[in-house]
Give the backbone structure.
Amino acid sequence: MQVMALIYSDGERWDALSATEREAIYDRYRAFAKEASDAGVMVGGNELGPTRDATTVRVRGDETLVTDGPYAEVKEALGGYFLFKCDSMDDAVDYAARIPGAEHGAVEVRPVYVDPAEVQL
Amino acid sequence: MKYAMLIYGDDSQWVDLPDEEKAKLRAEEMPRWAALFEELQKADPNVSGHELDARRTAKVVRVRDGERIVTDGPFAETKEVVGGVFLVDLPDLDEAIRLAALVPVAEYGSLEIRPIVE
């Protein structure tokens, strides 16, 4: 099964870190990514830019409404994700717990929906 | 510029429907999704997309002082939760907005566009 690990963390906390502190966190992420890749668990992953760079789009009737900012102003926002291939949700939880962001924020693990009848990208 | 298009929708009405009802609704919307995939692929042949399973399948993992805390349910308590994501490489934000507006969920939910950190 494929499982997405959505990493929620406090953007203000990140902004307040020094360059050295950030590099140390990136090192831990790289180490985690390598470990998960070597285990054949890692399918992909991305870091999202800060929520201040977000744009939200809604269509209501014939109108497209575009607003600056994220969908929801929350203290802990989605900051990135990994895509895992694993045997069970328990395995996904094991890997999610090793993501550095789990230590101060939260990681949501959710299976990727599979519908064989669907158009696959 | 690479963008993540996060799809936020309210699945609370949807999850309790019988399977055949769900299949019918999916089938009705499918031509529009297919048209969207075509547009996305025209814009970026390497586009990828993932739909997430219902929010009740989610687990939230936190580690505090070395201890693992696992809870059921999605992280966000909001009415709309992230239900899928597209990853697409586009010339600019305007193109991302144009494509986001083509996602069927934009009409009853919200699309959040976020640049990817390279």
In short: Chain A has a mean pLDDT of 93.
